[in-house]
Amino acid sequence: MTTFIDDQLVVRQKTTPGWPELVAGAAAFAASYALVAVALPLIEDDATAGVVGLVVSGLMGMIALAAAVVIRIRGLSAFGIRRAKKRHLIVGAALGIVVCAVGSIGSGLYIVMSGDAQNIQTTYQAGAAGGLMSLLVTFVAGSIITPIGEEAFFRGVVANTLLARLGPWVGIIGSAAVFAVAHGINPVMVAAFLVGIVTAILFRWSGSIWPGVVLHGVNNTAALILPVIIAAAIN
């Protein structure tokens, strides 16, 4: 039995990303992140900065995935880019609503306990509130491009590698922690950690990044739209 389990582990490790892919992807993501951190503040209009920020968030993940792929050329299915079952997608969509609600509560508790009330999503929300066209562009950027790029790297490479090499506990919690820190030390970090936990679990369950993309997209849509709706109702 032990030999069979060991053999299965070896097979899994040969068909999933390893440390070289993780290091290459992380280096590409870090380089992209540094470039964006310098360039994005140069955009003075909040709505434009918000849309650009969402687009580049997705592009950074895609660049990191590409860097990981070229280390050892293999099919994208090794990175979880494979068809998901309909029930996995439905569960992802439902959990997106739950995660958004719980994450908002967690971020609120973080603010109360830390006194850090900074809103790093001001520019994103400005994009959503900038008229119909701006709202549509923000939706495409934040609810489609960003989730695809971030899930491709943080689940398809980071969680995938940690799950295969270090097991489910380290894989799920470790990848979620990396995802949270990538969002900065601020109230959003709490919500990002929760998104990272649940999407990593979905990835392990389904073997695909797409249920996590759906969850991520639903969560981002709610986070972008709800403040606009609340502000309109108050005014």
From TrEMBL:
<dbReference type="Pfam" id="PF02517">
    <property type="entry name" value="Rce1-like"/>
</dbReference>
<feature type="transmembrane region" description="Helical">
    <location>
        <begin position="157"/>
        <end position="182"/>
    </location>
</feature>
<dbReference type="GO" id="GO:0006508">
    <property type="term" value="P:proteolysis"/>
</dbReference>
<dbReference type="GO" id="GO:0008237">
    <property type="term" value="F:metallopeptidase activity"/>
</dbReference>
<feature type="transmembrane region" description="Helical">
    <location>
        <begin position="188"/>
        <end position="206"/>
    </location>
</feature>
<keyword id="KW-0378">Hydrolase</keyword>
<feature type="transmembrane region" description="Helical">
    <location>
        <begin position="22"/>
        <end position="43"/>
    </location>
</feature>
<feature type="domain" description="CAAX prenyl protease 2/Lysostaphin resistance protein A-like">
    <location>
        <begin position="135"/>
        <end position="221"/>
    </location>
</feature>
<feature type="transmembrane region" description="Helical">
    <location>
        <begin position="213"/>
        <end position="234"/>
    </location>
</feature>
<feature type="transmembrane region" description="Helical">
    <location>
        <begin position="124"/>
        <end position="145"/>
    </location>
</feature>
<protein>
    <submittedName>
        <fullName>CPBP family intramembrane metalloprotease</fullName>
    </submittedName>
</protein>
<keyword id="KW-0472">Membrane</keyword>
<dbReference type="InterPro" id="IPR052710">
    <property type="entry name" value="CAAX_protease"/>
</dbReference>
<keyword id="KW-0812">Transmembrane</keyword>
<dbReference type="GO" id="GO:0004175">
    <property type="term" value="F:endopeptidase activity"/>
</dbReference>
<dbReference type="InterPro" id="IPR003675">
    <property type="entry name" value="Rce1/LyrA-like_dom"/>
</dbReference>
<feature type="transmembrane region" description="Helical">
    <location>
        <begin position="49"/>
        <end position="71"/>
    </location>
</feature>
<keyword id="KW-0645">Protease</keyword>
<keyword id="KW-0482">Metalloprotease</keyword>
<keyword id="KW-1133">Transmembrane helix</keyword>
<feature type="transmembrane region" description="Helical">
    <location>
        <begin position="91"/>
        <end position="112"/>
    </location>
</feature>
<dbReference type="GO" id="GO:0080120">
    <property type="term" value="P:CAAX-box protein maturation"/>
</dbReference>
